[in-house]
Amino acid sequence: MPTDRSSGALGRQNWRSITQTGFFLLFVLAPALNLLRFDLYETQLWFLGLRWSLGIDALARAEINAADAAMQLLWRAFLPGIVLVVGFLALAYRYGRLYCGWLCPHFSMVEMLNSLLQRACGKLSLWDKSAAPRAGQAADPRWWPLFALSCVLVGFVWAITLLTYLLPPAVIWGGLVHGSLTANQLRFLGVATLLISCELAFARHLFCRFGCAVGYFQSVAWMANPRAMVISFARERARECKSCGTQPQDPLPAPMSAACDNVCPMRLNPRNIKRMMFSCVQCGQCLDACEASQTAQQRKASLQWQIGADALRETLRQRAQSLKARH
Description:
Layout (H helix, E strand, L loop, with lengths): L11 H18 L6 E4 L4 E4 L2 E3 L3 H5 L5 H30 L2 H5 L2 H17 L22 H21 L4 H10 L4 H20 L1 H8 L1 H11 L6 E4 L51 H12 L6 E4 L2 H18 L1
Helix pairs in contact: 3-10, 5-6, 6-7, 6-8
């Protein structure tokens, strides 16, 4: 699990890159390796290289009775599903949207496109009000074609991968190479590529924050636990944040704001209270930016992860300050 400091010699963000890359490859290759897919041709579920049967076919052939079929359905479908969901939400209850920030293949593409867009126009999102050039680098319009092409390529990879979860991967990839895909398969790839590309180009942050059910339920579980891992902000040193985003050695300083504001891939203010950080993905980029900026100015970092009793104290302090501000 992520900790308050960079994880080992590689550093927090390098570890994140490793886990994201590994999970993205798993997402793309899982159908080809029969790790997880549902074959519409055979109406057969494949799981971990094995044919996964719910016993319905055996019931239709009168090989088992209704009671046996119900038990197989319970043991092979409902119980594994319940265990998976409960375990996933239990992890989110303690650590928040850890899956989103450290594994999710969609979010890894969001961050990649953020980087390209920032090179093109200085923003992480088309809807940002002001630019925040990274490391004092000026925006370069020559990156725009690469950003647009990347959105389309990622959209296409996503579309064809989703299709291989439903149809035999050998048929889809073979048809793509030999130009023998059916009209329906081509229509699916065309429509899916268009929709996913547009989502990645214009609404990738909005989808993660408001449209993703997986992320939403993780956030709900996280908000229900006052001891869950949170970003703690040393508010007594808030004045230091005014100069945090500007480094003396930068030829092109960032706007007068905290460094953490300029790096959050979800476009959040990491110094805000927990309920305003509902869609935080626990990526830790704000922690790294804060530490780097404050260290350069010979100051201690103002942001850190807190969990357990420390997180509870932070939550109670936030509530007290919120109530005080209202009155």
